[in-house]
């Protein structure tokens, strides 16, 4: 028995040794610019879901990726990420509706290898609740699961990056302040996501070399004016915090590229000073000076992603004037739903009539509010991948006529009376690239029809809270369909739908079908 177990263990050790040799060879043949990016991924704990956007911004802040050949640092970093993905050094956990990966991970064995290599080269020092074995100079410190033994440690004089990855429950304001006071003033990266912070640590404002600051998933409510000292800041991540207003001093952060807040944050009119800004989410334009803010947004010509809430009908001309200047936009969300911030109410008129043409590179479009007619410029958005309409109350034929010919459209969702007609008919030859269709809370809708040859690549169909008079006609023509979800139709009409026919067809096609009553 012992001999058999020992033999199995030796065999396993031989396998591990061979695997490590394979990893070593894979690492050896990586170009230098990928080696450090790859080793840096050891900051993520075992089985941790890796967010691509976070990695890209961190690599840019660490200067692993820099601008070259007219490409922004973030674009270069995304190329590096894709190279590692193509070499199978990063794994896909799942995919979005359009087949694009949304979450990633590192294989456990591969992670062990990069931790060892990173320690050898002093790329990253990991702290996971055990005593920290500090090299002479700790340059990057990643905290996993616990902050024990960190506050008392005195080996952070050379610290450049401090990252909290995972659940560090007992790391509070006092702990963060203690670490920052005892550490280096040379920090360029500070990621405090998920830390039990309730106030903005005052020591942060003294980190004048800081390029990356994340307070995501904290309880911070207020950003002090002293943040204006951080003149080198490129990323400010306030997602899932309680911050509702940004100080005037934000306008001093001229190098800022990424600014994300929740709760439709009020931004100062000085926002127009941030000429390098690429991402601005989510801002509130419902205050007295909202029209000034909309005009200032037009100065941000590098913007790729923009979310604006609180729009009023009279804001239409100023909004359209600014949008025409934003030729680099890839994602646009505009919302004319009147509300005291955080409280939903009725949709208002979203006036986009004066917009002569849409952003030419736009990939994702979210229009929230009443539209008098389908914007004519939608037909020219040939790069559009996803469209989401909410509260539009459209009845005209142009809606489907213009959308159906967009060559790259893969996702389409109509919600909350986005369409106010009784019938949606999808014509043959239309929506050739569409993979997902969602119809939700369209109270006037009674019939959905698919002509033969329509939506040939549709994979997912969801219909929820629509008072249909029968199941979608022509559903059998959707030969690539993988999943159908029917959710909570009105009881009195639900009985009229011959679901047995759909069940039988789904069974024959090996389709997944869910019905929720």
How would you describe the overall organization of this protein?
- One of its GO terms (molecular function) is ATP binding.
- Belongs to the disease resistance NB-LRR family.
- Keywords: ATP-binding, Leucine-rich repeat, Nucleotide-binding, Plant defense, Repeat.
- The structure is a single chain.
- It is built from eleven helices and 21 strands.
- It has 517 residues and is an alpha/beta fold.
- The strands form three sheets. It has a 17-stranded parallel sheet, sandwiched between helices. The chain has a two-stranded antiparallel ribbon with strand order 1-2. A two-stranded parallel ribbon has the order 16-18.
- Helix 7 runs parallel beside helix 8.
- It is globular and about 70 Å long.
- The protein starts with a helix and ends with a strand.
Give the secondary structure arrangement, pairings included:
Elements: H1 2-28, H2 32-40, H3 52-61, H4 73-86, E1 91-95, E2 101-105, H5 108-121, E3 125-127, E4 140-143, E5 161-164, H6 173-182, E6 189-191, E7 212-214, E8 235-238, E9 258-265, E10 279-284, H7 290-297, E11 305-309, H8 316-323, E12 331-335, E13 364-368, E14 386-390, H9 398-403, E15 411-415, E16 423-426, E17 436-440, E18 447-450, E19 460-464, E20 483-487, H10 491-494, H11 499-509, E21 512-516
Parallel strand pairs: 3-4, 4-5, 5-6, 6-7, 7-8, 8-9, 9-10, 10-11, 11-12, 12-13, 13-14, 14-15, 15-17, 16-18, 17-19, 19-20, 20-21
Antiparallel strand pairs: 1-2
Helix pairs in contact: 2-4, 3-4, 7-8
């Amino acid at each position: 028995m012992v001999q058999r177990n020992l033999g199995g263990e030796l065999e396993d050790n031989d396998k591990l040794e061979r695997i490590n040799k394979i990893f070593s060879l894979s690492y050896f043949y990586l170009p230098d610019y990928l080696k450090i990016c790859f080793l840096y991924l050891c900051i993520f704990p075992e089985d941790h879901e890796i967010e691509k956007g976070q990695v890209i911004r961190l690599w840019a802040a660490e200067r692993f990726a820099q601008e070259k050949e007219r490409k922004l640092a973030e674009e270069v970093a995304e190329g590096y990420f894709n190279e590692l993905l193509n070499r199978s050094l990063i794994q896909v956990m799942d995919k979005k509706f359009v087949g694009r990966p949304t979450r990633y991970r590192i294989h456990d064995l591969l992670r062990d290898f990069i931790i060892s290599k990173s320690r050898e080269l002093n790329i990253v020092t990991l702290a996971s609740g055990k005593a920290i074995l500090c090299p002479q100079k700790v340059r990057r410190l990643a905290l996993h699961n616990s902050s024990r033994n960190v506050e008392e440690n005195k080996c952070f004089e050379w610290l450049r990056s401090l990252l909290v990855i995972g659940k560090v429950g007992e790391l509070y304001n006092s702990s963060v302040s203690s670490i920052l006071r005892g550490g280096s003033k040379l920090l360029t990266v500070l990621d405090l996501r998920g830390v039990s912070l309730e106030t903005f640590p005052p020591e942060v404002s003294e980190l004048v070399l800081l390029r990356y600051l994340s307070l995501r998933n904290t309880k911070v409510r207020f950003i002090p004016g002293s943040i204006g000292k951080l003149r080198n800041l490129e990323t400010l991540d306030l997602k899932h915090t309680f911050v509702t207003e940004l100080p005037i001093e934000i306008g001093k952060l001229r190098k800022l590229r990424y600014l994300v807040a929740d709760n439709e944050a009020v931004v100062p009119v000085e926002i127009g000073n941030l000429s390098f800004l690429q991402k601005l989410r989510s801002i509130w334009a419902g205050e007295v000076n909202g029209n000034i803010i909309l005009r200032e947004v037009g100065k941000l010509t590098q913007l790729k992603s923009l979310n604006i809430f609180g729009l009023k009908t009279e804001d239409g001309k100023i909004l359209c004037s600014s949008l025409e200047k934003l030729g680099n936009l890839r994602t646009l969300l505009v919302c004319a739903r009147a509300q005291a911030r955080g409280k939903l109410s009725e949709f208002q008129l979203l006036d986009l009539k004066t917009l002569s043409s849409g952003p030419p590179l736009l990939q994702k479009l979210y229009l929230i509010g009443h539209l008098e007619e389908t914007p004519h410029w939608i037909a020219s958005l040939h790069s559009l991948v996803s469209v989401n309409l909410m509260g539009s109350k459209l009845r005209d034929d142009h809606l489907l006529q213009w959308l159906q010919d967009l060559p790259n459209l893969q996702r389409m969702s109509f919600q909350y009376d986005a369409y106010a007609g009784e019938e949606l008919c999808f014509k043959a030859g239309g929506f050739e690239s569409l993979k997902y269709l969602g119809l939700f809370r369209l109270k006037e809708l009674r019939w959905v029809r698919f002509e033969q040859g329509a939506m040939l690549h549709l994979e997912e169909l969801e219909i929820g809270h629509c008072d249909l008079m029968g199941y979608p006609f022509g559903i059998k023509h959707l030969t690539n369909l993988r999943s159908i979800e029917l959710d909570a139709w009105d009881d009195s009409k639900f009985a009229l739908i011959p679901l047995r026919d759909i069940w039988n067809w789904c069974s024959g096609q090996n389709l997944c079908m869910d019905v929720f009553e």
